[in-house]
Amino acid sequence: MSRAVxxxxxxxxxxxSKQPDVNCAEMVRIAIDKALLDAGxxxxxxxxxxxxxxxxxLEGIMQPEQYLAGALGAHxxxxxxxxxxxxVGCTTALTAATHVASGLYGRVLTVAFEKQSEGNAMxxxxxxxxxxxxxxxxxxxxxxxxxxxYIMRSGAPSHIxxxxxxxxxENAGRNEHAHLREPITVEDVLASPxxxxxxxxxxxxxxxxxxxxxxxxxxxxxxxxPRKPAWLKAGATFTEPMYVPGRDQVSPLAGRTCAKHVYAxxxxxxxxxxxxxxxxYVPFSWYEPMWLENLGFAPLNEGWKVVDRGDQKxxxxxxxxxxxxxxxxxxxxxxxxxxxxxxxxxxxxxxxxHQVPGVKTALGHAYGGGAQYFSIAILSxxx
Amino acid sequence: MSKLxxxxxxxxxxxxxxxxxxxxxxxxxxxxxxKQALKNANVERKDIDYQxxxxxxxxxxRAFSFSQVxxxxxAWPPVQDSHVEMDAIWAxxxxxxxxxxxxxxxxxIAGFGKVSEGSPMHVLNxxxxxxxHASLGLDHVSTSALQASAYMAKAGVDDAGLAEVAARNRAxxxxxxxxxxxxxxxxxxxxxxxxxxxxxxEGYLPPIGETATCLVLAAEGKAEKMCDKPVWIHGVDHxxxxxxxxxxxxxxxxxxxxxxxxxxxMAGVKGVNDAQVVELGSTTPVEELILRxxxxxxxxxxxxxxxxxxxxxxxxxxxxxxxxxxxxRLAEGFRQLSGRAGERAVSGAKRAVVHASAGHCLQQNIVxxxxxxxRWA
Lengths: 383, 377
What we know:
The complex is a heterodimer.
Chain A lengths: L4 E8 L11 H16 L8 E5 L26 E4 L5 H14 L5 E9 L5 H4 L13 H17 L5 H13 L13 H6 L2 E3 L2 E2 L8 E10 H5 L6 E10 L13 H14 L4 H4 L2 E3 L7 H8 L8 H7 L15 H4 L3 H17 L12 E8 L4 E8 L3
Parallel strand pairs in A: 2-3, 2-4, 9-10
Antiparallel strand pairs in A: 1-7, 1-8, 4-7, 5-6, 8-11, 10-11
Helix pairs in contact in A: 2-13, 10-11
Chain B lengths: L6 E8 L11 H15 L9 E5 L2 H4 L9 H4 L5 E6 L3 H13 L5 E8 L6 H6 L14 H16 L3 H15 L13 H4 L4 E3 L2 E2 L6 E2 L1 E9 L3 H4 L4 E10 L13 H14 L9 E3 L5 H11 L13 E2 L9 E2 L3 H13 L13 E8 L5 E8 L6
Parallel strand pairs in B: 2-3, 2-4, 7-12, 10-11, 10-13
Antiparallel strand pairs in B: 1-8, 1-9, 4-8, 5-6, 9-14, 13-14
């Protein structure tokens, strides 16, 4: 990246299955007001806006940046709208970073949201494509075979998914913004109904309403801010086709390539020991061990052993999703930016009750489509 | 303006623009276009650093539609990629920003929209404020008609004026083998076409059309090897306004004005008259008149033709394949400045101003300045 980019403000709504008191415009405005307040800035300090969200049919508003121009404070400013499936939140944040890195924009506001209560996500996530049988099974139906394949090839014991879910919920209990916070046990998870084998009800992300906004700035402007910024050391997005023959759907090459690319850019040789906290996009419990492998934190087929040892728990070697993650908060289009934003907050030392002590380097990650869109960011306390 | 990186358009390809291609899906339409664009730019897919597409789930009638074009864009082994839910000309802008950040040197930009999957009148209603506008049943024709009425009342332009603008574009379109309506029609004939929504007649509106497009961008050092006459980006800016139809002056385009001012400053030109060609993303005659005002061009009414040639392609009035319409304007700038405009070539064109729009009543606008020479030494 040609110029340094810093996160100088983060704001998010409380996430819930339905935010009945606000519409989309009001919901994004809450997140934006919080982010600007956090950065000690106002709308006139912003040079451009980058908006991200998942499919428009989720709310029934086409290209909502047009309707939301006022709420976003975008009047007479440049705005672009990113959509890269589930990865979109993180990709949107990285797109904003590119705007700052270009030197053309000093401060950029980036926003991501989803108001799933406006529509029917199961329907929107079951698109019909030519020459492929309609599944009408949502994302869970799509990803369950990948999780089954993971279990078969890694030999992971069947309780691992439940352990991930119970731990993620415990983490969400420390995050005041999380959607689901009531504690659950491994036994509760195992006793919950099977939705798409091997994914049980309590191993599945909720449908959430929520928004997040982040302000990014160049080096000079970031240093003027009231707080210590989080510096973006590296970021990249990689994609592969859904149907290419021989593709590894369990540990997609695009994810491995993306991780390798950002580690090289950030000078990270040993992610397990050089990164202190990670926020992965885990919409179904089994994806936690799968991503531990895909992102190079564990050898192939051994991600589940990290979970079995509990080394990814809060207070242990590499806390994964201390925010509670996507399993407990999933406003789809915002979920990837929440990973990016939570990683930034950890680096800034302002994650509140779920702050991991001594974080110098944090990773934010999102994926989407048929496990084909990958977006990864490395944030650091150091410029 | 500080020195920026010289970036050029080095290749372009498009599918024929038709009302309905019943035999091919959007990815099938795009596949040969990507291949042709790469061939035109003398480059193989593996030598391209980045790709970005512009499309809309609502236009294609399915969620995550863009995820289906990864195969045809050549995303294997995995590639660096993004997608904007906008006209592909904004994908081109994002790529240009990415090149300024030195995150890539070469890129393909794809546009596609399977317009025939649905009814644009109903689909574009969904762009509007769901509480105060969409629920009234407004569509892009009725909002444009409101704008046209307001403009005609203010500027004193009548039905004959609209017909003159439309006829001029249809005459230009007749010379463009890549557009959809290729028959010249007189103003008098156009004035006989029925109103769709008064004061806009059928003859003053674009046909429904679909296509797929692919543009290749490259930074200095690589661009020269990919194209005999690379067309360099001298300046660009884009701006949006509030959507609220009742809260902005529909008779002028403040966002175009500001974008043009910034793009001209970046390009180091005084104004639009420093260009020999102007290509506007106007979908009605009134939009063209408003954009002419905003850019500082004369109205051209009454047969006056001073200043640069406007809309040599025939403009979106001859073809408006949604999600591609803007990128086609940039392509026209490329074709005009790189000797690829055939019979409609504007002789001696060295600089072009290109405009595209999104949303109802010119809500969001982008302005580019292109040139045959590098902008920055």
